[in-house]
Structures are given as structure tokens and as C-alpha cells.
């Protein structure tokens, strides 16, 4: 399949957004064996808040900050208010986050309406630049840079700090971690909150390219779930690789056969899982 | 130090512990013996509150451990060297150690600093950057013991530390247990290897079906081949030859 720079840039910028949403989902699953189905809602909240803040205050950067912090706040409410009470009851946690997803969908539609809202990128990132002989949108390139920087930060936090070692140990064997004197629920609460922050940031960053509208939550959730499953549950490097693969496949197929893009991503997921049920970089669990 | 009184507990419908009582004195090494499935591992899980069903009294220096989360039990001074070692596979040897590191308690005879640990287990410094699970079985056993020591325990629960190790490594485990005893640690030691257990233990309990069916000093058990044969299923010649 011929590659062109523009569709690679579009694919990689989408991969940045996917990573931001998927990494929290993946680590939360790895720690507590439950899927946070409100992940897409946090993305949606980040996008809507960013749109409103940009409109009110006129600053794109404050909008990013506000979107991320807003999602963080909602994430903390979900975790402290509800999930904490359902500790170790994964099925109810899944049901509960699905319920939250429905509530958020209706409340956001009530506040922001049903039409897609689009945020303008900041002055400095508007327009296009010439990259490898192709004209590509500047904001897309900036998204890729942001994705790389944030993935690097997450990697550093998880792989090079003591706190990150607690998280990885918890993904490996939460019970053993607790027997060594670490409060697993506190580790989980912090991971959940940081995951929510990244989701909100993803929503805010994505609004200039995809817009924000009802349904964006479900769409990003489905794609992020594919990323998590493809990359391997609980694996950060897996989330990076799978985001890039899914982002590129989506944008390539979209270029040549737009109707089939969603289909192609699922086929890819099915093929990978047939060969490696644990995902690309996942470990086989005992 | 650690007391279990009339403890009942299990996972599903059936009980694994059926009124188990035992006590680990200050600085004492207590061997917990019995066939597979007698309840040795379950006893240790009960202390950490890891059983879905649990009744009875479990106290550390008179204070109840019942109802505490595992991390709170650890914070009060109980450490687990689990069966199967349970090294964190995603972590390096050094990171596995760092998970355990806590500030020392005032009353300890030996403060388990990283320096002290590396003096006792030099291999763990040499292999520091390796993934923990790439170590040999014996080295992994050193790592899991070192990791629990760094939590500055008053009582160490050691679950089959010699399991699956070569004889030379079993010898090394015995040396370490002696060293920990000298350091004043109280140890509850579940073992299938009777020679190892009795070489270090002061007192022994034999479990069957989740309750204590024999208790006495290590010397008494060593001398009583009848008990050994009946309850532990040991061939008498084997223990006489040892």
C-alpha cells in the first residue's frame, strides 16, 4: 500500500490521542482487573470543557489545562465516590462505569447540545507546514509531538520511579505488593486519577481535529479498547505500539476505502489475537 | 509475639483451618509441619487477612490483626516469604528490593538496610539490573527473603523456603534462617524438609486437616520417630540415617 506523508501524519496524530485514552484504561485494568467503561466520557468531558473555556477565556492553553483538570475531578469523584465502595467487585465496577457513561452522555448533551463543536488551534499552530514534500496541518504535527512527549513522561514515571515500580508490581501481583506493606487501593486511586487526567487532556487536544459531539465518547472508547487488547493488558509500551498501529491502519484505510476503516481495525485486532491472545507486548498470565 | 487462637478459616464452603491455635514466642523459630493440604499456607494467609472466611483470634503482641488490610498487617511488623517466591516479573532485582524498603523500627536488633542486605546476599547487588525472574531458583529465594526483611519485620512467615531448591541451596537457606534467628527475628517456618526445619526450630507444630495434632520442642520431635512416621509420613530409616 503506497504511503503518503499526509495520511501518516493523520494516523500518528490520531495515535497520540488513542494513547492518552488507552494508557489509563490499560494500567487500571492491569491493577484491578476491571474495565473502566467511563473512559470515553472523561475524554468527552475534557473536550467540552476545553471548548467552553476557550470560548470564555480565549486561551487554548488554559482550555487544555481546564479540560484535563475537569476530567481529573470527575475521575476522582467516580473513584472516591463509587469504585472505592465496590472494591474487588469487578463486575459491579464495570456496570457502574457503564452507567456513568450513559449519565455523562445525557448531561453533556443537555449542556452543550447535539451539534459537533470544534475548537480552533492556537494562532501559532494554525495553517500547514511542508514536511517531507507534503503539506500537512501544523496542529497534527504538534499533536504527534505532544503524544511523544507525554508517552515519554508516562514511561519515565512508570519505569524509572519508585512509585512506578509499585504500579508495575501491583499489575504483576497485587496481593504480594500489599503483603509487603503497600496500600494497593491508594496506588490504584492515583493511577485512576492520572488516567482520567490524560483522558481529559486527550479530549481537549483532540477537539481541534475531530470536534466534540455526542458519540465521540463511545467511538474513542471502542478504539481505545482495541488498543488495550492489541497492546497487551497492563502494558504501557504495548499501548504505545498498538496506538501507532491502530492509528496508522485507520488513516491508511480511510484514505483508500473510507467505509472500511472501522472494519479494518477490528479485523486487525482479530488477526493479532488469533496469533497472540496476550496482545503484541502482553505477557501470558498464569 | 504472634498468637493464633481457635482460628477457623477457608475459601469457599469447606474450612481449611479448623480451630487452629499456635504461638510464636519472642525470638523463637517455630516449625509448622504437616502433609500437603494440612493448612500451613492457609495459616499464613489467615495472619494477613487473605481468607474470605475467617474466625478466631490472631494477635501480634496482644493487638488484634483481625480485619486489617494486608498492608496494615505488614506495617505492624509481619512479613511473608511466600511459597513459590512470587518475585515481581516486571521488576528488576533492585526494584523488587525497593518495594519492601521501610524505615527501621526502634526496637530491632538488626536494622535491615540495603547495605546490610547486600552484605548478607552479595549476589543481589551483582544482579541488580536483571529482571527478578531471570535469577536462579536459589537466588530468587534469597531475593524474596531479602525483600521481606527490608520491611523491618518482627515476625517472619516463611512458607516452604527450600521448595524446589538444590541441596547446596537448601543448605544456604538453613544458614540464612540461623542468621535471622541470631538477629532476634521470630520466625514461623512451614517446611516439608524436616531436617532443615528441625535444625533451626525451637518448637514444632504438626498440622492435620487444619488443626494442631502434635506440638513439642524440636528435640522431642527429632527423638520421636513414631510421630514422624505417623503424622509426617516419613520413613523411619530415612530420619534415623540423617
From TrEMBL, chain A:
Keywords: Amino-acid transport, Cell membrane, Membrane, Transmembrane, Transmembrane helix, Transport. It is a multi-pass membrane protein. Its main location: membrane. It holds the Pfam family BPD_transp_2. The keyword rRNA processing does not apply. It is found in: Cell membrane. The keyword Cell membrane applies. One of its GO terms (biological process) is amino acid transport. One of its GO terms (molecular function) is transmembrane transporter activity. GO terms for cellular component: plasma membrane. The chain crosses the membrane at residues 6-27, 34-54, 60-79, 91-112, 139-158, 187-206, 218-249, 256-275. Belongs to the binding-protein-dependent transport system permease family. LivHM subfamily. This is Branched-chain amino acid ABC transporter permease. It comes from Thermalbibacter longus. The lineage of its organism: Bacteria, Pseudomonadati, Thermomicrobiota, Thermomicrobia, Thermomicrobiales.
TrEMBL record, chain B:
One of its GO terms (molecular function) is ATP hydrolysis activity. It comes from the Bacteria. Residues 2-234 form the ABC transporter domain. SUPFAM superfamilies: P-loop containing nucleoside triphosphate hydrolases (SSF52540). GO terms for biological process: L-amino acid transport. Keywords: Amino-acid transport, ATP-binding, Nucleotide-binding, Transport. InterPro entries: AAA+_ATPase, ABC_transporter-like_ATP-bd, ABC_transporter-like_CS, BCAA_Transport_ATP-bd_LivF, P-loop_NTPase. PANTHER family: HIGH-AFFINITY BRANCHED-CHAIN AMINO ACID TRANSPORT ATP-BINDING PROTEIN LIVF (PTHR43820). Belongs to the ABC transporter superfamily. This is ABC transporter ATP-binding protein. It comes from Thermalbibacter longus.
